[in-house]
Amino acid sequence: MIDDCSIEIGKDGRATLSGALTFESVAGLFGETQKLFRGPQPVTLIDLSNVTNADSAGLALLLEWQSMQRAASRQLEINNAPDSLISLARLCEADDVMNLTGRNSQQ
Length: 107
What we know:
Helix 1 packs parallel to helix 2 (56-71). This protein has helices at residues 23-33, 56-71, 83-91, 95-98, and strands spanning 5-9, 14-21, 45-54, 77-81, 100-102. The radius of gyration is 13 Å and the shape is globular. The termini are far apart. The chain is built from four helices and five strands, in the order E-E-H-E-H-E-H-H-E. It has one domain (15-30, 41-102): 2-Layer Sandwich (Transcription Regulator spoIIAA), CATH 3.30.750.24. Strand 3, helix 2 and strand 4 form a beta-alpha-beta unit. The chain is α/β, with parallel strands linked by helices.
């Protein structure tokens, strides 16, 4: 079974990811969301509360989105990250640049 991840974008600049944010799903998400950060109402917050799994490819995608926003002098919040993603970000020493909060506590 191929992992899948979908994105819903609200008119308020918030996006919700659902499913597995893994190697199998990030390429499709990246291509689908390139325009999200360049539109008239760019995404400023990503909610990960419906993400069931995340791996290093998912972390790389989130870092790329952060980089795109910084290049446009904008901030991107990433909320409700699963503990596994928070741990991976810490392991890679990327947690300081991610603007990332977890589900269970203020991390």
